[in-house]
């Protein structure tokens, strides 16, 4: 009588162990680099447990950029350009991001009822073009030397004026860490010169990208400054 009871308990324990171990979330990548303004799809396979949601990145407000709250998106739901579809043999839950932008960069998590897997989305480096001419008012007003870079994570910037390395903040100048543009407080005659910005994205990584932008800043009359982009060269 006692032997039969022990055997029954052992069999039930093994069955429970096998059932639990079959639960799995399969995400075949840990880091993905996406080009801006392209649509990307990221499939997560969930077996042996229930799919809960894809969790989007969160980000604190920084350097003039607004805070971003994390959201949980499940099948049939969408949040702006982001949605989730059930695909394949119904065990794949695909995250869809339409027209990827820098704000989409960050950590995404595929959550099941027991487990979760995450990957990091990086958004490829892009210079949107330097407008020419750019007019700034001389005197009491502020101005900006526009660079127009975007990427996630943000690149590193090295600015030089007339060949001399600049450090920020410097003499009423500061740098926008997201776009690389220089913000000038009370534009003056001393802001005239030749500026060069070396931009490096993913420094030291296999996907490292480098570009250089040369900008000439001219003082015209006593009321305005015109910025002319005189050269752009990609060193990829």
From TrEMBL:
Keywords: Disulfide bond, Signal. Residues 66-214 form the Ig-like domain. GO terms for cellular component: axon; neuronal cell body; plasma membrane. It comes from the Eukaryota. PROSITE patterns: IG_LIKE. It holds the Pfam family I-set. One of its GO terms (molecular function) is axon guidance receptor activity. Residues 1-23 form the signal peptide. CDD domains: Ig. The keyword Disulfide bond applies. GO terms for biological process: homophilic cell adhesion via plasma membrane adhesion molecules; synapse organization. This is Axonal fasciculation. The lineage of its organism: Eukaryota, Metazoa, Cnidaria, Anthozoa, Hexacorallia. The gene is NCAM2_2.
């Amino acid at each position: 009588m006692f032997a039969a009871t022990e055997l029954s308990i052992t069999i039930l324990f093994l069955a429970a162990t096998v059932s639990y171990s079959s639960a799995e979330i399969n995400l075949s990548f840990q880091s993905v680099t996406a080009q801006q303004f392209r649509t990307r799809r990221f499939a997560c396979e969930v077996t042996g447990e229930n799919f809960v949601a894809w969790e989007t990145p969160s980000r604190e407000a920084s350097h003039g950029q607004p805070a971003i709250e994390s959201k949980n998106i499940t099948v049939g739901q969408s949040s702006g350009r982001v949605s989730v579809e059930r695909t394949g043999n119904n065990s794949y839950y695909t995250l869809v991001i339409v027209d990827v932008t820098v704000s989409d960069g960050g950590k995404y998590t595929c959550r099941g009822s027991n487990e979760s897997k995450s990957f990091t989305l990086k958004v490829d480096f892009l210079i949107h073009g330097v407008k020419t001419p750019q007019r700034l008012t001389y005197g009491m007003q502020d101005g900006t030397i526009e660079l127009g870079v975007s990427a996630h994570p943000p690149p590193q910037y090295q600015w030089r004026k007339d060949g001399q390395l600049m450090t920020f903040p410097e003499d009423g100048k500061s740098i926008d860490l997201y776009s690389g543009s220089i913000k000038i407080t009370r534009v003056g005659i001393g802001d005239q010169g030749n500026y060069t910005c070396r931009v490096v994205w993913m420094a030291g990584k296999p996907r490292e990208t480098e570009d250089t932008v040369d900008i000439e800043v001219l003082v015209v009359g006593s009321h305005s400054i015109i910025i002319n982009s005189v050269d752009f060269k990609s060193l990829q």
